[in-house]
Amino acid sequence: MTRNALVTGATGAIGAAIAGALEQQGIRVARHGYRNCAQGCLAADLRRENDIEALFQQAEGRLGGGIDILVNNAGLALPQQLLTDTTAEEFDDVFALDARGVFLCCRRALPHMVRQKWGRIVNIASVWGVAGGSCEAAYSAAKAAVIGLTKALAREAAPSGVTVNCVAPGAIATPMNAHLGPETLAQLAREIPVGRLGAPEDVAGAVCFFAGGGAGYVTGQVLCVDGGFI
Q1: In Å, how far from its chain's centre is CA 178?
Q2: Per 3-state DSSP, what percentage of the chain is helix, strand, and coil (rounded to 5)?
Q3: What is the pLDDT of residues 56-103, one digit of tens each?
């Protein structure tokens, strides 16, 4: 049976890798983007309930059915800064997308999954949501909230055949990190036990495991894809 998936934040390197890997598994994928709608992505601001409803309706229409697999990958991070330099508005903005947006997407996807007694939700958090990151207070707190939501929803949805898991990437080589410069990136790689930064495909592989039929007895888990960093 061919499944339908929605991947949020699919215009970024990690989201694109996840969408591509799912498609290689024979899964039909709808890709979401915020502003950049290249490669057929569906545009939506996940901080807005109406946008999320419209996104799901468009995805369901494009795929010809309900969403069986939801990957909540879209996220927002502030520049590294002290907590005392972080405004309440910045903090709220991070939570609006990184935590509340995940909640809203999960809530919209669940009824179809529950009705058919099968579903997979994979939330993308961060190692900073597990361990906390210095000068990353808002982002760490929002990703920790995603982990808490994942664990709670996993218990709630399990009797309906729906699994809910979390992938927590560490340092991943993406264009977003290129501004750090080669020296900083090399130093960061030396601090990782496996000796390199992760690739978007490393994250995609973990997502594919959770999204697959073989992971039906795995739920409420947080898998750190971080090369042994924490």
Answers
A1: 21
A2: 55, 15, 30
A3: 999 999 999 999 999 999 999 999 999 999 999 999 999 999 999 999
- For strands 162-169 and 222-225, give the pairing: parallel
Catalytic residue among 99, 139, 197, 202: 139
- Catalytic status, residue 139: yes
Cβ 40 vs Cβ 33: under 8 Å:
no
Among 20-29, 103-112, 123-132, 174-183, where is mean pLDDT lowest? 174-183
What pTM does this model have? 0.96
Residue 188 is which amino acid?
Answer: L
> Which tokens is 103 given?
């909640």
Q: What is the side-by-side order of every strand in the sheet holding 69-72?
A: 42-43, 28-33, 4-7, 69-72, 119-124, 162-169, 222-225
Map out the domains of the chain with their CATH numbers.
4-173+201-224 (3.40.50.720)
